[in-house]
């Protein structure tokens, strides 16, 4: 009897562990995919760094350094080692947070990225929030009013958003909203000089730091600086998300469960906003995540026009100065964020859509 009880208990224990592993499988798959994709990204950046025509030693010590210093630095950087060994050194440095030193700023690249990336993160986050708040309802309206004037208006709006150059819209917006209407602050960074050097830097995101400091004057000033570039970036998100929402909603509104709901007397408002949009949110998660990633990596021109000290501007200035450590370090960060958001959207897709399981 004891033996049977023990066998049964052991079976239940093994079964419980198997169920636990089954629940963790999506997370384990997520981690493994993240690791493999990140390895590929690091391999790609390493190869690019070695194929660039610039000499990595001269980029560090300058082209007027003596030959003895050149040879010493060459050995210290491990450039005399086999390429596989160099890649191993590169991986070890990256995983320890060492992305080299920027020639242009003379600071560690990691330190520069920690200073510049929060500005891009703040700008892109506010832009995607605006994009979702306006793009999704506009897309729903276009689908409900298919081939009527609201739908045609939304499609023209989306077409203009996709085809207009961002730098032209930015300069036009500065002339209208700053020069003539004086509704926003000057396109000169993230804060006025009177607040820039007195605000405590906790997260390096000025809206959050001003709230943490309880400085409402600085918060108002920070919002006046960010609202115009964020609105311009969000215009592209609104155009893209409205078009995709319209497409997903049209597909859902043609499904049989919509017809069944109408036959049962369900209100049109519930059919549209609860049932159809509820199912359309599943593919929209991926679209929103990819749109957010594009904002994080594609806001270079906006940052340049508005003198916004973000990562895109940092990478561009470093590229013009042939500062390859900074360029590759910034590329790694942007690539990692893109990979993380892409894989996160896949994980959320499986969570919210039972069919994907």
Written account of the structure:
- This protein is mostly helical and about 350 residues long.
- The chain has a domain at about 110-355: MetI-like (MetI-like fold).
- Helices cover about 80% and strands about 0% of the residues.
- The chain has 15 helices and no strands.
- α5 packs antiparallel against α6 (about 150-165) and α5 (about 110-145) runs antiparallel to α12 (about 270-295).
- It starts with a helix and ends in a 5-residue tail after the last helix.
- InterPro entries: BPD_transp_1_N, MetI-like, MetI-like_sf.
- Belongs to the binding-protein-dependent transport system permease family.
- Keywords: Cell membrane, Membrane, Transmembrane, Transmembrane helix, Transport.
- One of its GO terms (cellular component) is plasma membrane.
- GO terms for molecular function: dipeptide transmembrane transporter activity.
Could you list some keywords that capture this structure?
BPD_transp_1_N, transmembrane, dipeptide transmembrane transporter activity, mainly alpha, 357 residues, MetI-like fold, disordered N terminus
Order of helices and strands: HHHHHHHHHHHHHHH
Instruction: Detail the poorly predicted runs.
Output: 1-6
CATH class value of the domain at 109-356: Mainly Alpha
How is the main sheet built?
Answer: none
Give the CATH architecture of the domain at 109-356.
Answer: Orthogonal Bundle
Keywords: Cell membrane, Membrane, Transmembrane, Transmembrane helix, Transport
Transmembrane segments: 27-48, 123-144, 156-178, 222-241, 281-306, 326-349
Subcellular location: Cell membrane
Membrane topology: Multi-pass membrane protein
